[in-house]
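Practice set, problem 2.
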Amino acid sequence: MSNVNSNNNSGFDKNDFIKLLMANQRHIQAFIISLVPNINDAEDIYQETASEMWNKYETFVPGTDFAAWAITIAKYKVFHFYRASKNSKMQFDSEICETIAARVKSRIGNLDDHIDILNKCVKKLANKEKSLLKLRYKDELTLKQISLRISKKPPSIHRIISNIHAKLAICFRRNLRCEGLK
Protein backbone atom coordinates (compact mmCIF):
# COMPACT_ATOMS: atom_id res chain seq x y z
CA MET A 1 0.00 0.00 0.00
CA SER A 2 1.42 3.39 -0.94
CA ASN A 3 1.80 6.26 1.44
CA VAL A 4 -1.18 8.63 1.15
CA ASN A 5 0.96 11.71 1.81
CA SER A 6 4.05 11.38 -0.35
CA ASN A 7 5.24 14.80 0.85
CA ASN A 8 5.27 13.87 4.49
CA ASN A 9 7.97 14.66 6.95
CA SER A 10 8.35 11.22 8.51
CA GLY A 11 12.05 11.08 7.64
CA PHE A 12 12.86 14.30 9.52
CA ASP A 13 14.16 14.56 13.04
CA LYS A 14 11.77 16.10 15.57
CA ASN A 15 14.62 18.50 16.42
CA ASP A 16 13.81 20.18 13.10
CA PHE A 17 10.34 20.87 14.46
CA ILE A 18 11.74 22.44 17.64
CA LYS A 19 14.09 24.67 15.63
CA LEU A 20 11.28 25.81 13.33
CA LEU A 21 8.92 26.38 16.25
CA MET A 22 11.46 28.45 18.16
CA ALA A 23 12.31 30.52 15.08
CA ASN A 24 8.62 31.29 14.47
CA GLN A 25 7.29 31.41 18.04
CA ARG A 26 6.92 35.21 18.18
CA HIS A 27 4.97 35.30 14.93
CA ILE A 28 2.59 32.59 16.06
CA GLN A 29 2.08 34.19 19.48
CA ALA A 30 1.58 37.64 17.95
CA PHE A 31 -1.05 36.20 15.65
CA ILE A 32 -2.93 34.55 18.53
CA ILE A 33 -2.68 37.56 20.85
CA SER A 34 -4.02 39.84 18.14
CA LEU A 35 -7.18 37.72 18.01
CA VAL A 36 -7.46 36.78 21.69
CA PRO A 37 -6.90 39.79 23.95
CA ASN A 38 -6.79 37.84 27.23
CA ILE A 39 -3.14 36.84 27.68
CA ASN A 40 -3.97 33.68 29.67
CA ASP A 41 -6.37 32.46 26.98
CA ALA A 42 -3.82 33.33 24.30
CA GLU A 43 -1.10 31.35 26.11
CA ASP A 44 -3.44 28.34 26.42
CA ILE A 45 -4.25 28.54 22.71
CA TYR A 46 -0.54 28.79 21.86
CA GLN A 47 0.14 25.63 23.88
CA GLU A 48 -2.73 23.82 22.14
CA THR A 49 -1.43 25.04 18.79
CA ALA A 50 2.12 23.85 19.51
CA SER A 51 0.78 20.47 20.60
CA GLU A 52 -1.34 20.15 17.46
CA MET A 53 1.64 21.18 15.32
CA TRP A 54 3.76 18.50 16.98
CA ASN A 55 1.09 15.88 16.29
CA LYS A 56 0.69 17.00 12.66
CA TYR A 57 4.34 17.74 11.90
CA GLU A 58 4.50 14.78 9.52
CA THR A 59 2.10 16.69 7.24
CA PHE A 60 4.37 19.74 7.03
CA VAL A 61 6.12 19.89 3.68
CA PRO A 62 9.81 20.83 4.05
CA GLY A 63 10.74 23.94 2.13
CA THR A 64 7.31 25.52 2.52
CA ASP A 65 6.44 28.36 4.88
CA PHE A 66 6.42 26.93 8.42
CA ALA A 67 4.97 30.14 9.90
CA ALA A 68 2.04 30.08 7.46
CA TRP A 69 1.39 26.41 8.29
CA ALA A 70 1.56 27.13 12.03
CA ILE A 71 -0.66 30.21 11.79
CA THR A 72 -3.28 28.21 9.92
CA ILE A 73 -3.37 25.73 12.80
CA ALA A 74 -3.47 28.61 15.30
CA LYS A 75 -6.35 30.22 13.40
CA TYR A 76 -8.45 27.10 13.78
CA LYS A 77 -7.54 26.86 17.47
CA VAL A 78 -8.72 30.46 17.94
CA PHE A 79 -11.95 29.74 16.04
CA HIS A 80 -12.53 26.71 18.24
CA PHE A 81 -11.86 28.79 21.36
CA TYR A 82 -14.52 31.34 20.39
CA ARG A 83 -17.03 28.66 19.44
CA ALA A 84 -16.42 26.85 22.75
CA SER A 85 -16.61 29.97 24.92
CA LYS A 86 -20.24 30.90 24.51
CA ASN A 87 -20.04 33.15 27.58
CA SER A 88 -17.31 35.22 25.94
CA LYS A 89 -18.18 38.86 25.39
CA MET A 90 -16.38 38.67 22.08
CA GLN A 91 -18.13 36.53 19.48
CA PHE A 92 -17.11 36.49 15.83
CA ASP A 93 -18.57 34.64 12.93
CA SER A 94 -16.06 32.70 10.88
CA GLU A 95 -16.09 35.20 7.99
CA ILE A 96 -15.06 38.04 10.31
CA CYS A 97 -12.42 35.81 11.92
CA GLU A 98 -11.02 34.97 8.47
CA THR A 99 -10.83 38.67 7.56
CA ILE A 100 -9.10 39.58 10.83
CA ALA A 101 -6.75 36.60 10.55
CA ALA A 102 -5.73 37.58 7.01
CA ARG A 103 -5.04 41.18 8.05
CA VAL A 104 -3.05 40.12 11.13
CA LYS A 105 -1.07 37.59 9.11
CA SER A 106 -0.07 40.28 6.62
CA ARG A 107 1.01 42.67 9.38
CA ILE A 108 3.17 40.31 11.45
CA GLY A 109 5.54 39.76 8.55
CA ASN A 110 7.72 42.65 9.79
CA LEU A 111 7.55 41.65 13.45
CA ASP A 112 11.26 40.87 13.79
CA ASP A 113 12.19 44.17 12.12
CA HIS A 114 9.82 46.03 14.44
CA ILE A 115 11.31 44.34 17.51
CA ASP A 116 14.82 45.26 16.35
CA ILE A 117 13.77 48.90 15.89
CA LEU A 118 12.14 48.99 19.32
CA ASN A 119 15.29 47.52 20.90
CA LYS A 120 17.38 50.25 19.24
CA CYS A 121 15.05 52.88 20.66
CA VAL A 122 15.17 51.38 24.15
CA LYS A 123 18.98 51.44 24.03
CA LYS A 124 18.83 55.21 23.45
CA LEU A 125 16.93 55.77 26.72
CA ALA A 126 18.62 57.01 29.87
CA ASN A 127 19.59 54.31 32.38
CA LYS A 128 16.88 55.49 34.83
CA GLU A 129 14.25 55.13 32.11
CA LYS A 130 15.48 51.64 31.21
CA SER A 131 15.43 50.65 34.89
CA LEU A 132 11.86 51.86 35.26
CA LEU A 133 10.75 49.92 32.17
CA LYS A 134 12.49 46.83 33.52
CA LEU A 135 10.61 47.10 36.80
CA ARG A 136 7.29 47.59 35.02
CA TYR A 137 7.53 45.09 32.18
CA LYS A 138 10.24 42.53 32.90
CA ASP A 139 9.67 42.29 36.66
CA GLU A 140 5.93 42.92 36.09
CA LEU A 141 5.59 45.24 39.09
CA THR A 142 2.51 47.39 39.52
CA LEU A 143 2.81 51.17 39.76
CA LYS A 144 2.20 50.90 43.48
CA GLN A 145 5.01 48.34 43.89
CA ILE A 146 7.36 50.51 41.87
CA SER A 147 6.42 53.56 43.94
CA LEU A 148 7.43 51.74 47.11
CA ARG A 149 10.76 50.83 45.55
CA ILE A 150 11.76 54.21 44.21
CA SER A 151 9.92 56.51 46.63
CA LYS A 152 7.68 58.25 44.10
CA LYS A 153 3.90 58.36 44.04
CA PRO A 154 2.07 56.12 41.54
CA PRO A 155 0.67 59.06 39.51
CA SER A 156 4.20 60.39 39.09
CA ILE A 157 5.44 56.98 37.94
CA HIS A 158 2.51 56.72 35.54
CA ARG A 159 3.41 60.11 34.06
CA ILE A 160 7.09 59.15 33.70
CA ILE A 161 6.24 55.83 32.03
CA SER A 162 3.78 57.60 29.71
CA ASN A 163 6.54 60.01 28.71
CA ILE A 164 8.89 57.08 28.06
CA HIS A 165 6.20 55.43 25.90
CA ALA A 166 5.80 58.66 23.93
CA LYS A 167 9.57 58.94 23.46
CA LEU A 168 9.74 55.33 22.27
CA ALA A 169 6.80 55.83 19.90
CA ILE A 170 8.47 58.85 18.28
CA CYS A 171 11.77 57.01 17.94
CA PHE A 172 10.01 53.90 16.58
CA ARG A 173 8.03 55.82 13.96
CA ARG A 174 11.12 57.78 12.89
CA ASN A 175 13.16 54.58 12.46
CA LEU A 176 10.28 52.83 10.73
CA ARG A 177 10.15 55.61 8.13
CA CYS A 178 13.93 55.59 7.72
CA GLU A 179 13.95 51.85 7.07
CA GLY A 180 10.92 52.02 4.78
CA LEU A 181 8.85 49.58 6.84
CA LYS A 182 5.18 49.70 7.75
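Problem 2, part (b): a different protein.
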Amino acid sequence: MNWTTLLCMPFLVLAGSGCLGGARAHRLADRQKRSFLPEASAAQPLAPAPRFGAATLRSLRIQPPFDARTFLIRRGQNEFAADFYNGWIAPPADLIRGQTARYLRETGLFETVFDLPGGTRAPLGLECIVNDLYLDHSGPEPAAVVAMRVLVLDERTPNGSVLFTCEKRARVPLTSSDAGTAAEALGRALTQTLEALTRTLAAAPLGGVR
Protein backbone atom coordinates (compact mmCIF):
# COMPACT_ATOMS: atom_id res chain seq x y z
CA MET A 1 0.00 0.00 0.00
CA ASN A 2 1.52 3.35 -1.03
CA TRP A 3 1.41 6.71 0.74
CA THR A 4 -1.26 8.05 -1.66
CA THR A 5 -3.63 5.26 -0.67
CA LEU A 6 -2.98 5.81 3.03
CA LEU A 7 -3.64 9.52 2.73
CA CYS A 8 -6.88 8.96 0.82
CA MET A 9 -8.34 6.38 3.19
CA PRO A 10 -9.62 8.88 5.86
CA PHE A 11 -11.41 10.85 3.17
CA LEU A 12 -12.97 7.69 1.76
CA VAL A 13 -14.18 6.68 5.23
CA LEU A 14 -15.67 10.14 5.85
CA ALA A 15 -17.33 10.16 2.44
CA GLY A 16 -18.77 6.71 3.04
CA SER A 17 -20.07 7.60 6.47
CA GLY A 18 -21.63 10.75 5.02
CA CYS A 19 -23.49 8.72 2.39
CA LEU A 20 -24.67 6.22 5.01
CA GLY A 21 -25.74 9.04 7.30
CA GLY A 22 -27.64 10.66 4.47
CA ALA A 23 -29.40 7.39 3.67
CA ARG A 24 -30.38 6.96 7.32
CA ALA A 25 -31.67 10.53 7.42
CA HIS A 26 -33.81 9.89 4.33
CA ARG A 27 -35.23 6.69 5.84
CA LEU A 28 -36.03 8.53 9.06
CA ALA A 29 -37.70 11.34 7.14
CA ASP A 30 -39.81 8.84 5.18
CA ARG A 31 -40.97 7.20 8.42
CA GLN A 32 -42.04 10.58 9.75
CA LYS A 33 -44.19 11.38 6.70
CA ARG A 34 -47.96 11.16 7.16
CA SER A 35 -50.62 10.96 4.45
CA PHE A 36 -54.26 11.95 4.77
CA LEU A 37 -57.60 11.81 2.98
CA PRO A 38 -59.83 14.91 2.77
CA GLU A 39 -63.22 13.69 4.02
CA ALA A 40 -66.38 15.73 3.56
CA SER A 41 -69.20 14.95 5.96
CA ALA A 42 -72.43 13.42 4.67
CA ALA A 43 -74.76 15.86 2.95
CA GLN A 44 -78.24 16.65 4.18
CA PRO A 45 -81.00 16.11 1.57
CA LEU A 46 -82.06 19.49 0.18
CA ALA A 47 -85.18 18.43 -1.68
CA PRO A 48 -87.88 15.76 -1.17
CA ALA A 49 -87.55 14.88 -4.84
CA PRO A 50 -84.86 15.65 -7.44
CA ARG A 51 -85.14 19.20 -8.78
CA PHE A 52 -82.92 18.54 -11.77
CA GLY A 53 -82.12 15.71 -14.11
CA ALA A 54 -79.01 13.56 -14.07
CA ALA A 55 -75.62 15.27 -14.11
CA THR A 56 -72.10 14.20 -14.98
CA LEU A 57 -69.17 15.55 -13.03
CA ARG A 58 -67.10 16.29 -16.13
CA SER A 59 -64.05 17.58 -14.34
CA LEU A 60 -62.65 18.73 -11.03
CA ARG A 61 -59.34 20.52 -11.10
CA ILE A 62 -57.29 22.34 -8.51
CA GLN A 63 -55.50 25.53 -9.39
CA PRO A 64 -51.71 25.44 -8.96
CA PRO A 65 -49.95 25.46 -6.57
CA PHE A 66 -52.78 24.03 -4.45
CA ASP A 67 -52.80 20.82 -6.51
CA ALA A 68 -49.63 19.63 -4.72
CA ARG A 69 -49.56 16.33 -2.80
CA THR A 70 -48.01 18.13 0.20
CA PHE A 71 -49.96 20.43 2.50
CA LEU A 72 -49.44 24.07 1.58
CA ILE A 73 -48.99 26.61 4.36
CA ARG A 74 -49.54 30.31 3.88
CA ARG A 75 -47.04 32.31 5.92
CA GLY A 76 -47.67 35.81 4.60
CA GLN A 77 -49.57 37.72 1.96
CA ASN A 78 -47.65 36.16 -0.94
CA GLU A 79 -45.55 33.57 0.91
CA PHE A 80 -46.35 29.87 0.86
CA ALA A 81 -44.37 26.84 2.00
CA ALA A 82 -44.80 23.12 1.35
CA ASP A 83 -45.04 20.77 4.34
CA PHE A 84 -42.56 18.03 3.42
CA TYR A 85 -43.79 15.65 6.12
CA ASN A 86 -47.58 15.89 5.71
CA GLY A 87 -49.81 15.69 2.68
CA TRP A 88 -52.47 13.81 0.73
CA ILE A 89 -52.42 10.06 0.14
CA ALA A 90 -53.15 10.63 -3.58
CA PRO A 91 -53.43 13.64 -5.92
CA PRO A 92 -55.88 15.97 -4.15
CA ALA A 93 -57.95 16.54 -7.30
CA ASP A 94 -58.74 12.81 -7.46
CA LEU A 95 -59.61 12.67 -3.76
CA ILE A 96 -61.81 15.78 -3.73
CA ARG A 97 -63.54 14.71 -6.94
CA GLY A 98 -64.80 11.54 -5.29
CA GLN A 99 -65.93 13.42 -2.19
CA THR A 100 -67.72 16.05 -4.31
CA ALA A 101 -69.57 13.52 -6.46
CA ARG A 102 -70.77 11.64 -3.37
CA TYR A 103 -71.87 14.83 -1.64
CA LEU A 104 -73.83 16.03 -4.69
CA ARG A 105 -75.63 12.69 -4.94
CA GLU A 106 -76.57 12.80 -1.27
CA THR A 107 -78.21 16.23 -1.57
CA GLY A 108 -80.93 14.74 -3.78
CA LEU A 109 -80.91 17.77 -6.08
CA PHE A 110 -80.13 15.63 -9.13
CA GLU A 111 -81.68 12.38 -10.31
CA THR A 112 -78.14 11.02 -10.07
CA VAL A 113 -74.58 12.25 -10.41
CA PHE A 114 -72.16 10.29 -12.57
CA ASP A 115 -68.59 10.54 -11.35
CA LEU A 116 -67.07 9.90 -14.78
CA PRO A 117 -68.42 10.34 -18.32
CA GLY A 118 -69.80 7.06 -19.62
CA GLY A 119 -72.20 5.62 -22.14
CA THR A 120 -75.22 7.39 -20.62
CA ARG A 121 -75.43 11.05 -21.62
CA ALA A 122 -76.79 13.20 -18.80
CA PRO A 123 -78.58 16.48 -19.62
CA LEU A 124 -76.37 18.42 -17.18
CA GLY A 125 -72.62 18.68 -16.87
CA LEU A 126 -70.72 19.90 -13.82
CA GLU A 127 -67.26 21.40 -13.74
CA CYS A 128 -65.57 22.23 -10.42
CA ILE A 129 -62.51 24.37 -9.85
CA VAL A 130 -60.79 24.46 -6.46
CA ASN A 131 -59.17 27.89 -6.19
CA ASP A 132 -57.85 27.57 -2.62
CA LEU A 133 -56.72 24.59 -0.55
CA TYR A 134 -54.23 25.50 2.16
CA LEU A 135 -53.47 26.05 5.83
CA ASP A 136 -53.39 29.75 6.66
CA HIS A 137 -50.80 30.69 9.28
CA SER A 138 -50.39 34.28 8.09
CA GLY A 139 -52.42 35.79 10.94
CA PRO A 140 -53.05 35.36 14.65
CA GLU A 141 -55.79 32.74 14.07
CA PRO A 142 -54.56 29.82 11.89
CA ALA A 143 -57.23 28.20 9.76
CA ALA A 144 -57.88 25.70 6.97
CA VAL A 145 -59.11 27.39 3.80
CA VAL A 146 -61.03 25.90 0.87
CA ALA A 147 -62.63 27.74 -2.04
CA MET A 148 -64.46 26.09 -4.94
CA ARG A 149 -66.30 27.25 -8.04
CA VAL A 150 -68.99 25.18 -9.77
CA LEU A 151 -70.25 25.56 -13.33
CA VAL A 152 -73.47 23.87 -14.47
CA LEU A 153 -73.52 23.16 -18.21
CA ASP A 154 -76.41 22.32 -20.54
CA GLU A 155 -75.21 19.15 -22.25
CA ARG A 156 -78.14 19.28 -24.67
CA THR A 157 -76.51 22.18 -26.51
CA PRO A 158 -73.61 21.63 -28.93
CA ASN A 159 -71.09 23.63 -26.91
CA GLY A 160 -72.41 22.93 -23.42
CA SER A 161 -73.59 26.45 -22.61
CA VAL A 162 -73.20 27.60 -19.00
CA LEU A 163 -76.54 27.66 -17.15
CA PHE A 164 -75.24 28.70 -13.75
CA THR A 165 -72.04 29.34 -11.86
CA CYS A 166 -71.12 30.26 -8.30
CA GLU A 167 -68.13 30.20 -5.96
CA LYS A 168 -68.03 29.65 -2.21
CA ARG A 169 -65.29 29.76 0.37
CA ALA A 170 -64.90 28.35 3.89
CA ARG A 171 -62.43 29.00 6.68
CA VAL A 172 -62.21 26.59 9.64
CA PRO A 173 -60.02 27.49 12.66
CA LEU A 174 -57.12 25.19 13.54
CA THR A 175 -57.29 24.07 17.15
CA SER A 176 -53.77 22.58 17.25
CA SER A 177 -50.62 22.23 15.17
CA ASP A 178 -51.08 18.46 14.71
CA ALA A 179 -51.22 17.36 11.06
CA GLY A 180 -54.23 15.12 11.74
CA THR A 181 -56.11 18.10 13.13
CA ALA A 182 -55.15 20.11 10.04
CA ALA A 183 -56.47 17.37 7.73
CA GLU A 184 -59.75 17.23 9.66
CA ALA A 185 -60.08 21.03 9.45
CA LEU A 186 -59.52 20.91 5.69
CA GLY A 187 -62.23 18.25 5.48
CA ARG A 188 -64.63 20.45 7.44
CA ALA A 189 -63.78 23.41 5.22
CA LEU A 190 -64.50 21.26 2.17
CA THR A 191 -67.84 20.23 3.72
CA GLN A 192 -68.83 23.83 4.44
CA THR A 193 -67.87 24.88 0.92
CA LEU A 194 -69.92 22.10 -0.67
CA GLU A 195 -72.86 22.86 1.63
CA ALA A 196 -72.86 26.54 0.61
CA LEU A 197 -72.52 25.66 -3.08
CA THR A 198 -75.37 23.17 -3.08
CA ARG A 199 -77.71 25.47 -1.13
CA THR A 200 -77.14 28.16 -3.74
CA LEU A 201 -77.49 25.59 -6.50
CA ALA A 202 -80.85 24.43 -5.06
CA ALA A 203 -82.29 27.84 -5.94
CA ALA A 204 -80.58 28.09 -9.32
CA PRO A 205 -82.78 28.95 -12.33
CA LEU A 206 -81.88 25.92 -14.41
CA GLY A 207 -85.19 25.86 -16.20
CA GLY A 208 -86.14 22.41 -14.97
CA VAL A 209 -83.54 20.70 -17.12
CA ARG A 210 -84.19 16.96 -17.23
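Answer key, part (b): The CA atoms of residues 154 and 161 lie 5 Å apart. The mean pLDDT is 87.
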